[in-house]
Amino acid sequence: MAYETIVVETADHVCLIRLNRPDALNALNGQLIGELAEAVGEADGDKNVRCIILTGSEKAFAAGADISEMADKDFVDVFMGDMFGSQIDRILACRKPIIAAVSGYALGGGCELAMMCDFIIAADTAKFGQPEINLGVIAGIGGTQRLTHFVGKSKAMDMHLTGRFMDAEEAERSGLVSRVVPAKKLMDEAMSAAQKIAEKSALTVKAAKEAVNRAYELPLREGLLFERRLFHGLFATEDQKEGMKAFLEKREPQFRDK
Ligand code: HXC
């Protein structure tokens, strides 16, 4: 499908989705979010794709929801339209891993979008923030919840109430991002992480993503039971037999996603 606000390239089992509204620092408008949801859905259904990378430009991952598109909306507009709700649900329904590769600004909805991904690799130029408070609103696609889970209440409150930005070093220290690399190496690092994932059993990768995500959604006791049952279930797969046999035979496993 031809997109206007994103660029999608698939090679070596990795689907790279680049947000592409350079004149607006990749601000998220209805068209971009619609196209992104479509592209993620397509990648999720494409047998050839084993991992997805979501990125922006050097200057901005995304500087938030498009303020010019939101400014004149009233309550009924946003309530009835549910601003990005169904598209976000589609992105969150993706069962394949999505890595966010963040360079420059990841603000407001941009920060929220990065946090919806499975993990974030940041360039040393990255700046994260929830500055909605300066616009007379608050985060609307998960920022108050996810940022608080990732960095704790004190820092999340600080970010949401003052609107200040967090640099990459602070973001790594606080648990918001998994790694920080020099800006020039960002895409290589993201690609090599994606390739690593692509080499695993797709079946086990799905199980791991489902189980880790339950840590955010279920009480500990239920999450542990969910994990344990998935773990047990993996012993019904050929990939478990192959993975363990390969280890004992001191060779690389040949996974068949079965
Ligand atoms: C629309 C935006 C934009 C945005 C930047 N632009 N952010 N347009 N929506 N969120 C546009 C600018 O208007 C400008 O267009 C061009 O991008 C370059 O931006 P500048 O401001 O000139 O760049 P710079 O001086 O480098 O400042 C970068 C910046 C600043 C610090 C990132 O642009 C900024 O503060 N942006 C807004 C960040 C923000 O408040 N985000 C939260 C949005 S609310 P022109 O045409 O003038 O060149 C949100 C809610 C989510 O995200 C909830 C969703 C349901």
Automatic annotation (TrEMBL):
EC number: 4.2.1.17
UniProt keyword annotation of Ribosomal protein present: no
Gene Ontology terms for molecular function: enoyl-CoA hydratase activity
Catalytic activity: a (3S)-3-hydroxyacyl-CoA = a (2E)-enoyl-CoA + H2O; a 4-saturated-(3S)-3-hydroxyacyl-CoA = a (3E)-enoyl-CoA + H2O
Pfam families associated with the record: ECH_1 (PF00378)
Alphabetically ordered keywords of this record: Fatty acid metabolism, Lipid metabolism, Lyase
Record's keyword annotation contains Lyase: yes
Stored Gene3D superfamilies: 2-enoyl-CoA Hydratase, Chain A, domain 1, Lyase 2-enoyl-coa Hydratase, Chain A, domain 2
Domain of life: Bacteria
InterPro entries, per the entry: ClpP/crotonase-like_dom_sf, Enoyl-CoA_hyd/isom_CS, Enoyl-CoA_hydra/iso, Enoyl-CoA_hydra_C
GO biological process, one term: fatty acid beta-oxidation
Alphabetized NCBIfam families for the sequence: PRK05862.1
Similarity-based family: Belongs to the enoyl-CoA hydratase/isomerase family.
Role: Could possibly oxidize fatty acids using specific components.
Protein name (Swiss-Prot/TrEMBL): enoyl-CoA hydratase
Origin species: Vannielia litorea
